[in-house]
Design brief:
Length: 438
């Protein structure tokens, strides 16, 4: 193992220390239910909680532990913007629709905050604000130019931070200033998932883990869902697999692009050093196309640092030192700090860079969060459940009725990803490149 790792380093999420994946009792799976949910991450658990609270019979299947995927592997950053900016969205979808879609992200953030408070979920929820570092001087100018429209049309409160004042927000000179978005937040993703899972089970949802679904077939007005232990009939099916969508939903798999996101956590550092590096304990991202995202751990002692460091998928033993090199480039004081945890998870991008929910061949789905699943997945899981319940007004979103695009010859294995990442990295190195893509 690389010398940058601590002797006790683990190749699994740091979040699992406080929130290990639960060992759940094997439920008695009925022959028939009202709703089957495939996937027990944020989307699936949120949908199950909403349905069970409405008195519906729900069975949730997952091929792994509950929350084994990106729901407990993400950075725990809760934002209020989409991957594409307001102007870019407006050029494609029109100004009113663009504004409505970005407002939907604020709705998601507010839904999560209300859920955490109403359910009493202990998950280190903290409204800390986000600092978006400008990778180039032109990026700072672009962030400043779009700010009045975000304030006036979307209602997002933010301020520009010039480079001369940057150290008050972040202990580095690597950025050319940035934007502070006030209402962004952080949470412990593992504890958040565990809290939702606990409430869903208490509401009556049955959770069957280590039980992959092999096939979903329509039979008259119902679906027959074949799983590793038998089959079950259901009136409705929700696919909630996001970056882990596989052959059980081949038409949906063709519409999402699984992309590995890699994360490390450092060993604990002194409070004095952390106060220099992250004095406000913000969540951090930047304006690169191949973005890095990072934050202080909930106890304020570690840096949790994520991003993509390879053109093709790799493993945490290889990605960990590469992420550390980027981190120590931003913060030279961390050069000798060891890695305690290194892990990865698959997020799901879409061809139009927007999340999607709806029905396909009668099967409901919510997925394609484009790296924003920490806040979009619980919200859209709730919304798709409302649609299943027939509550069309309450379940409506600005993402409804959007064509869920795919491409010719694409079956779910992103053969084009390496070239795309290399191209975006090239643009990130160009001093005057404009515009930003994920």
């Amino acid at each position: 193992m690389d010398a940058q790792f601590a002797s006790t380093a683990k190749m699994e999420p740091y979040w699992w220390e406080e929130a290990p994946r639960p060992v759940l009792p094997d439920p008695q799976i009925p022959q028939r239910t009202e709703v089957v949910v495939i996937g027990c991450g944020y989307t699936g658990v949120s949908a199950a909680l909403t349905l069970a609270r409405e008195g519906r019979e729900v069975v949730v299947f997952d091929a792994e532990h509950a929350g084994w995927g990106c729901s407990t592997r993400n950075g725990g950053q809760i934002g209020t913007k989409l991957r594409l900016g307001l102007s870019e969205l407006a050029s494609t979808h029109g100004r009113p629709k663009a504004v409505a879609m970005i407002k939907e992200v604020t709705n998601a953030r507010n839904y999560i905050e209300a859920l955490i408070k109403s359910e009493g979920i202990e998950c280190n929820w903290h409204v800390c604000g986000r600092f978006v570092g400008a990778h180039r001087p032109g990026d700072y100018e672009g962030l400043a130019a779009e700010l009045p429209a975000y304030r006036k049309e979307v209602g997002i409160e933010a301020d520009m931070v010039p480079r001369s004042e940057q150290r008050a927000e972040l202990g580095t000179d690597a950025y050319y200033g940035g934007q502070l978005v006030h209402n962004n937040a952080s949470l412990h993703p593992g504890l958040f998932h565990s809290g939702m899972l606990d409430r869903a089970i208490k509401a009556g949802a049955k959770i069957s883990i280590h039980n992959p679904v092999a096939k979903v077939e329509r039979d008259g007005g119902e679906f027959v869902v074949t799983h590793s232990r038998g089959s079950i009939r259901a009136k409705n099916v929700i696919v909630a697999t996001n970056g882990y969508t596989d052959g059980v939903a081949p038409d949906l798999r063709r519409r999402v692009i699984p992309i590995g996101s890699y994360v490390i956590a450092t060993e604990p550092m002194s409070p004095n050093l952390m106060n220099v590096l992250m004095p406000k304990k913000r969540v951090i991202s930047d304006t690169r196309r191949v973005v890095y995202y990072y934050r202080a751990s909930p106890d304020g002692r570690r840096i949790v640092f994520g991003g993509r460091v390879a053109s093709t998928e790799t493993n945490p033993e290889i990605s960990g030192p590469k992420l550390h090199a980027v981190m120590s480039g931003l913060f030279p004081e961390t050069r000798d700090v060891k890695i305690s945890h290194s892990w990865m998870g698959f997020v799901a991008y879409t061809f139009d860079h927007l999340p999607h929910l709806g029905t396909h061949d009668g099967i409901h789905y919510a997925m394609g969060y484009c790296g924003s699943g920490a806040h979009m997945a619980p919200y859209l899981g709730h919304k798709i459940a409302l649609k299943v319940l027939g509550k069309t007004v309450e379940g409506a979103t600005a993402f409804d009725d959007r064509t869920f695009q795919t491409r010719p010859f694409y079956s779910g294995a992103p053969w084009f990803l390496a070239g795309m990442v290399m191209f975006y990295r090239f643009l990130d190195r160009m001093p005057n490149a404009s515009g930003r893509r994920p």
